[in-house]
Amino acid sequence: MGVFNAVMSLSGLIDTELAEGERLARHTSYRIGGKAALFITCHSYHSLRRTIEVLGRERVPWVILGKGSNLLVADAGYEGAVISLGREFSRFVVSDDGATITAGAGAMLARLVNEALSRELSGLEFAVGIPGTVGGAISMNAGSRDEWIGAVVQDVVTYKPAAGIRHYGREDVTWGYRVTSLPRDEIILEVTLRLAPGKKVDIRAKMEQSLARRRRTQPIGSASCGSVFRNPANMSVGKMIEDCGLKGFSVGGAEVSTMHANFIVNKGTASAADVSAVISHVYEKVKETYGVELQPEVKFLGF
């Protein structure tokens, strides 16, 4: 049992790409992370289902990885399988009504935003500049402080291992700040979004305004995971960290951004241990100063 048997069972499986010892730094926006025992790209639902079955039988732990835009992988890597959703999960379909788009979970959110613009559909302007996949955006209800992707969701399709396909209408899901009630043990496969017709010039203007704000206030272009902590109710975690005098605080190659204090950037040589140390220091300092225990938005793998 284990990784070796899983490799033997999955090698040659149609619509499945398999790599052993893949460096996860290549698959995260932090550009940090050790090796995964297995890195599996599933290009179809059949491949995904079969892969999950084999890993379960062989007792190999697994995780789904989008584009790794909110993930910190340990320097020692992950002694399990990392699954990426490929071709079949990267498609867009626009319905006959012209205002409903169904997107695979593996599709890039940026492509979806541009697709909406090209079809003169409004409702996703706030998402311009947000990295990652559609599935990742749905799982964490990505957006700004005031606008979330959950507001335009019509339907979500998931796969529950050993149980099959599940469907959730918008009202079946609770959408909150950086969180949804979708079961954590289910894999998001696709989502249907209900958008509104608009004028391309107006949609583009709103997108440019949103992107300009991000460029002005966030270290876009630097290696990071985006926001590290969730904002407490009615508080700005960035301002809290800044008021603690932590802008520019660093450990090794990891630094609290001097542009936005809720971003920790990889200056080029950071290890996961460096980033983890900065996160811990910020957490303790804010707790000591404000009595608030910050909740991480970044996810951790291999720790």
Structural write-up:
The chain is an alpha+beta fold and 303 residues long. It folds into 3 domains: 3-88, 2-Layer Sandwich (Uridine Diphospho-n-acetylenolpyruvylglucosamine Reductase, domain 2); 90-216, Uridine Diphospho-n-acetylenolpyruvylglucosamine Reductase, domain 3 (2-Layer Sandwich); 219-301, Alpha-Beta Complex (Uridine Diphospho-n-acetylenolpyruvylglucosamine Reductase, domain 1). 27% of the residues lie in helices and 26% in strands. The protein contains 7 helices and 18 strands. The strands form 6 sheets. A 5-stranded antiparallel β-sheet has the order 6-7-13-9-10. The radius of gyration is 20 Å and the shape is globular.
Question: What would you say about this model in short?
Answer:
The chain is of the alpha+beta class. Helix content is 27%, strand content 26%. The protein folds into three domains: 3-88, Uridine Diphospho-n-acetylenolpyruvylglucosamine Reductase, domain 2 (2-Layer Sandwich); 90-216, 2-Layer Sandwich (Uridine Diphospho-n-acetylenolpyruvylglucosamine Reductase, domain 3); 219-301, Uridine Diphospho-n-acetylenolpyruvylglucosamine Reductase, domain 1 (Alpha-Beta Complex), CATH 3.90.78.
